[in-house]
């Protein structure tokens, strides 16, 4: 019998009280062939929440260097055919990897992203199907000029693509995912899967709330770097 493709789930962690819930949702996937890699990015708080899972995960520790550096370290140690990213305050639906991989295989896709639901600090649903659904390639690329329609925790990417695209840009503190997707898009198409397979937690301590101004300043710099590419795709879509 042919072995199932292996999926690596990388969870960067820094002082997040929800990390145990994130790890549990990754370990309890209905898809059987996964590895979960938790990267402690110099955390000083809530590390005890990882302890119950230590015998079922790969656990890496490093000095604090930001999300991009933590994901890159996870990628270096990942042995999977596919890469998934899970923020330590978010959760996967338990069939996330199974549904996403099966759909990608049907589409012959090398990378994809899905829709997601928003939950609050108590894991109560606040908004279903919260991600923007692009009706056409032109809509998608137009959306990439004004924001990032791809929630990083919803992606599944064939690991070999990083050999072509390179690693996440560690000089970016808030938009390392947006910049990576723009690089990958020049190699391969991102397929949208219209299922809410991730629970994205909205809370006041999340970085996109605390550092909103810095995030948008950084976003503008990345967008301007790739503006010609995006506008070209909009014209030809």
Q: Secondary-structure blueprint of this entry?
A:
Layout (H helix, E strand, L loop, with lengths): L6 E7 L5 H9 L6 E8 L16 E5 L4 H11 L4 E4 L5 E2 L3 H12 L3 E9 L5 E3 L9 H10 L9 E3 L2 H5 L10 H10 L5 E11 L5 H4 L1 H25 L1
Parallel strand pairs: 1-2, 1-4, 2-3, 6-9
Antiparallel strand pairs: 4-8, 5-9, 6-7, 6-8
Task: State the separation between the terminal residues, measured CA to CA.
Answer: 42 Å
Q: Name the helicity range.
A: 25-40%
Question: Oligomer, anyone?
Answer: single chain
Spans of at least 5 consecutive residues whose pLDDT stays below 50 are none
Shape: globular
Listing every helix as H and every strand as E from the N terminus to the C terminus, the arrangement reads EHEEHEEHEEHEHHEHH
Number of strands: 9
What count of helical segments does DSSP give?
Answer: 8
Structural Rg: 17 Å
What fraction of the residues are assigned to beta strands by DSSP? 15-25%
Going by helix content, strand content and strand pairing, the class is alpha/beta
Mean pLDDT reading = 95
Sheet having the most strands: 9 strands, mixed
Describe, in plain words, how this protein is organized in 3D.
- The chain has 237 residues and is α/β, with parallel strands linked by helices.
- It contains eight helices and nine strands.
- It has helices at residues 19-27, 67-77, 96-107, 137-146, 161-165, 176-185, 207-210, 212-236, and strands at 7-13, 34-41, 58-62, 82-85, 91-92, 111-119, 125-127, 156-158, 191-201.
- Strands 1, 2, 3, 4, 5, 6, 7, 8 and 9 form a nine-stranded mixed sheet that branches.
- Helix 1 (19-27) links the parallel strand 1 and strand 2 (34-41).
- Helix 4 packs antiparallel against helix 8.
- It is globular.
- The termini are far apart.
């Amino acid at each position: 019998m042919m072995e199932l493709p292996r999926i690596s789930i990388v969870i960067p962690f820094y002082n997040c009280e929800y990390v145990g819930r994130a790890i549990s949702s990754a370990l309890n996937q209905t898809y059987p062939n996964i590895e979960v890699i938790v990267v402690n990015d110099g955390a000083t708080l809530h590390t005890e929440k990882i302890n119950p899972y230590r015998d079922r995960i790969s656990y890496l520790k490093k000095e604090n260097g930001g999300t991009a550096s933590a994901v890159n370290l996870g990628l270096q140690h990942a042995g999977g055919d596919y890469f998934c990213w899970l923020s330590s305050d978010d959760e996967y639906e338990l069939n996330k990897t199974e549904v996403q991989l099966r759909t990608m295989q049907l589409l012959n896709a090398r990378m994809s992203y899905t829709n997601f639901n928003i939950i609050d600090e108590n894991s109560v649903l606040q908004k279903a199907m919260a991600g923007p659904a692009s009706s056409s390639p032109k809509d998608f690329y137009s959306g990439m000029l004004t924001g990032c329609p791809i929630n990083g925790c919803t992606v599944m990417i064939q690991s070999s693509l990083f050999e072509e695209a390179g690693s996440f840009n560690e000089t970016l503190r808030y938009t390392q995912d947006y910049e990576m997707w723009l690089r990958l898009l020049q190699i391969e198409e991102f397929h949208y899967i219209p299922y809410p397979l991730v629970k994205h937690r909205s809370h006041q301590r999340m970085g996109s709330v605390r550092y909103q101004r810095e995030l948008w300043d950084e976003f503008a710099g990345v967008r301007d770097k790739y503006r010609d590419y995006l506008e070209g795709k909009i014209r030809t879509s």
